[in-house]
Amino acid sequence: MEIQIRNAKTEDYDSLLSLFRQVHDLHVLERPDLYKENSTPVGEEDFHHQLKDDQQHIYVATLGTEIVGVAVLKEEEVHENSFVNARKILLVNSLCVDDVKRKMGIGRKLMQFVFNFAKELNVDSIELGVSESNQNAIYFYESIGMATKNRKMEFRLS
């Protein structure tokens, strides 16, 4: 079966919720000080709002009729000022491939779709955040040509 990429639809919410949970559960496992356990990390109303927002895009990867991956994207504009140049960014807010479908090229196909979509939007860059402890994700993103732009550091007081 061939991997297909398409726009998410309203009726995809229930299928996508399990993928949103997988991402959220990983965040909770890595940083319980920041993330709360939540069986509904993306509410249905929020999902529908994202679908209607012209600056946000949700694409799903399918194998047959089964949703096996998702990319949640947002267009952002940086306005020029005395410190920075104006630029347009496509932010990958979330990328998830179902745990049992990994290593099948789904993430790679989703990100290639994102790269092509970004070119259509004429953005200057594609950016995303990834936890330092998520070495599998870092390796994946590096393998498709992404590089570390900056690093956010913290000193935890509690």
Topology:
Layout: E1 3-7, H1 13-30, H2 44-52, E2 56-63, E3 66-78, E4 87-97, H3 106-121, E5 125-128, H4 135-143
Parallel strand pairs: 4-5
Antiparallel strand pairs: 1-2, 2-3, 3-4
Query: For this structure, what is the CATH class?
Result: Alpha Beta
Q: How many domains, in number, for the residues?
A: 1
What quaternary form is this?
Answer: single chain
Largest sheet: 5 strands, mixed
Number of helices: 4
Which runs of at least 5 residues are low in confidence (pLDDT < 50)? none
Helix/strand structural class: alpha+beta
Mean pLDDT across all amino acids: 94
Question: What percentage of amino acids are in beta strands?
Answer: 25-35%
Task: Give the C-alpha Rg.
Answer: 16 Å
Strand order of the largest sheet: 1-2-3-4-5
Helix content: 25-40%
What CATH calls the topology is: Aminopeptidase
For the termini, the CA-CA separation is 49 Å
Question: Can you name the CATH architecture?
Answer: 3-Layer(aba) Sandwich
CATH superfamily: Gcn5-related N-acetyltransferase (GNAT)
How many β-strands, per DSSP?
5
State the order of secondary-structure elements, H for helix, E for strand. Answer: EHHEEEHEH
